[in-house]
């Protein structure tokens, strides 16, 4: 391993460090190993791993050959992984030791012959993430990543068009259903450069910038920004696992300038007592970008107070890329908005038949990607149909104000219908998160015992030390929401089932209700 000099861009994860040159060289060696197995352009390679330096090496090594790196959620079960193996006809799987049993089971379920490459888990990574140290011992059932790299000392050379080919397929998160493969039209060199330039400029990436990877690398935006930062020569610090206090310490210690987070992380940071937060110097931050989930207005205001003009937000989707951007000052002038369409992207609010709706009226959010964004179709499903020519609906609901700013109010699949009336959970969540002592909340519907269709349920996670009860929450909401919007059932919980990218698994909670796992008794329920 080459010693890092002050001028050499570095990657850091816990106590482990590598220079950018070392990382790119190792990625190139892995690329040679992949080509030696007769895999290359268009081949699909799954990555199931924790955040670590090797995650980026594997991602870049796969891309160097023109194959598609497909990062998948580390919380997925074998059947969920098997779906991707089958759907994408995956040829190779890179997995941390922790996940080898899952990908083995998935391979069997999918009747797949995909080759498994095991990524050994360093003791330092396990210690930093608080995982079982026994995972430092590889299974011995598969070849190791390190063995492949060592066996191919000559890095792969430049392959014309490989980067464009490597971006051919990406999977949706699957939060509300089975993940769908998004097969993109191959981008031109000009499209790639324009896309990289736009992302770098808005996200604050440049050579020598100190960036923090706080979110999971299996999620699209942290992954894309980290890979872009690596190629640009940024100094990258990787968090193996999210922790609000470690976040504050890393920003202070490494003088972090750029970071991508999600609203749930913002809430966790704000749960750290203000006096303790003040002991960390956050003044180095120039770009704190958030996305992936709606940010309640009160939480956003608190985040702007903490991060100032460094805070920015974007809205987008796997199918169409980034659609809107909004800065802190702009948001204060349009509170609750996710911004204006950027770079030639478009937003139209229309009904299910494609009829445009006037400003202020809620409907489906139909979108079109930026001028440089490629056309796409769903893998094995074709081009999705739309009643609005040239635009796509991915399930979001919202409205535009008179100035064209987009406001999201939730997803169509989450709307609660009670007595024939549509109830939007995001509105209720915004009201609850604004209450003192609330750290996190999820609102959803379950079948009503009577004849009204669905009942509104709220699961609320309090901030440490806060005293919340269903009765006090209900009392506070009574003056803010119409009575039919006040949750019929309120449960105070220790945590919500969110993935590391901040998306809550509401279906998981609803399934638990359907299975009778929640008994309506106790002080935390009303």
How would you explain this protein's 3D organization?
By secondary structure, the chain is α/β, with parallel strands linked by helices. It contains 17 helices and 26 strands. A 9-stranded mixed beta sheet has the order 2-1-11-10-12-13-14-15-16, sandwiched between helices. Helix 13 links the parallel strand 13 and strand 14. Helix 3 (78-87) crosses helix 4. It is globular and about 70 Å long. The protein starts with 9 loop residues before the first strand and ends in a 12-residue tail after the last helix.
Helix content: 25-40%
- The backbone outline, from C-alpha atoms, is globular
Secondary structure class reads: alpha/beta
Measured distance between first and last alpha carbons: 59 Å
Radius of gyration: 23 Å
| SS strand fraction | 15-25%
- The count of β-strands is 26
Detail the poorly predicted runs. 1-5
> Which strands sit side by side, in order, in the main sheet?
2-1-11-10-12-13-14-15-16
Q: Could you report the average pLDDT, rounded to the nearest whole number?
A: 92
Major beta-sheet overview: 9 strands, mixed
- What's the helix count? 17
């Amino acid at each position: 391993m080459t010693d890092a000099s002050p001028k050499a861009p570095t990657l850091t994860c816990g106590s482990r460090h590598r220079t950018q040159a070392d990382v790119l060289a190792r990625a190139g060696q892995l690329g040679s190993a992949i080509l030696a197995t007769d895999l290359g352009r268009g081949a699909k390679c799954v990555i199931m791993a924790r955040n670590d330096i090797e995650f980026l090496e594997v991602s870049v090594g796969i891309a160097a050959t023109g194959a598609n790196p497909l990062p998948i959620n580390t919380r997925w079960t074998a059947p969920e992984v098997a779906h991707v193996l089958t759907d994408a006809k995956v040829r190779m799987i890179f997995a941390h030791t922790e996940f080898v049993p899952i990908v083995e089971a998935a391979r069997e379920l999918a009747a797949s012959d995909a080759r498994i490459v095991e990524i050994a888990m360093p003791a330092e990574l396990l210690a930093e993430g608080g995982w079982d140290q026994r995972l430092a011992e590889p299974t011995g059932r598969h070849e190791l990543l390190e063995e492949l790299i060592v066996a191919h000392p000559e890095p792969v050379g430049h392959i014309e068009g490989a980067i464009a080919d490597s971006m051919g397929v990406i999977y949706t998160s699957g939060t509300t259903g089975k993940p769908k493969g998004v097969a993109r039209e191959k981008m031109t060199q000009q499209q790639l450069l324009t896309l990289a330039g736009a992302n770098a400029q808005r996200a604050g990436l440049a050579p020598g910038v100190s960036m923090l990877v706080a979110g999971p690398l299996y999620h699209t935006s942290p992954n894309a920004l980290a890979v872009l930062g690596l190629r640009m020569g940024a100094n990258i610090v990787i968090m193996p696992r999210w922790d609000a206090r470690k976040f504050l310490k890393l920003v202070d210690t490494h003088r972090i300038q750029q970071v991508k987070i999600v609203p749930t992380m913002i809430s966790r940071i704000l749960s750290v007592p203000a006096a303790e937060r003040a002991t960390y110097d956050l003044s180095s931050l120039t770009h704190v970008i958030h996305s992936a989930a709606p940010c309640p207005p009160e939480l956003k205001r608190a985040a702007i107070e903490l991060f100032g003009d460094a805070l920015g937000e974007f809205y987008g989707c796997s199918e169409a890329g980034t659609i809107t951007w909004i800065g802190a000052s702009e948001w204060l002038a349009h509170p609750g908005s996710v911004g204006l369409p950027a770079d030639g992207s478009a937003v139209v609010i229309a009904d299910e038949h494609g009829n445009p709706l006037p400003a202020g009226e809620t409907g489906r959010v139909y979108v079109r990607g930026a001028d440089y964004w490629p056309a796409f179709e769903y893998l094995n499903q074709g081009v999705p149909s739309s009643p609005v020519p040239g635009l796509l609906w991915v399930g979001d609901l919202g409205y535009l104000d008179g100035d064209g700013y987009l406001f999201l109010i939730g997803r169509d699949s989450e709307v609660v219908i009670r007595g024939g009336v549509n109830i939007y959970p995001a509105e209720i969540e915004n009201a609850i998160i604004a209450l003192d002592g609330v750290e996190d909340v999820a609102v959803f519907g379950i079948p009503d015992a009577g004849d009204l269709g669905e009942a509104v349920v709220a699961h609320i996670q309090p901030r440490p030390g806060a005293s919340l009860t269903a009765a006090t929450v209900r009392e506070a909401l009574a003056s803010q929401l119409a009575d039919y919007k006040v949750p019929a059932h309120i449960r105070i919980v220790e945590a919500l089932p969110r993935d590391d990218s901040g998306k809550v698994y509401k279906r998981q909670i609803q399934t638990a209700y359907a299975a009778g796992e929640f008994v309506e008794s106790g002080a935390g329920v009303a």
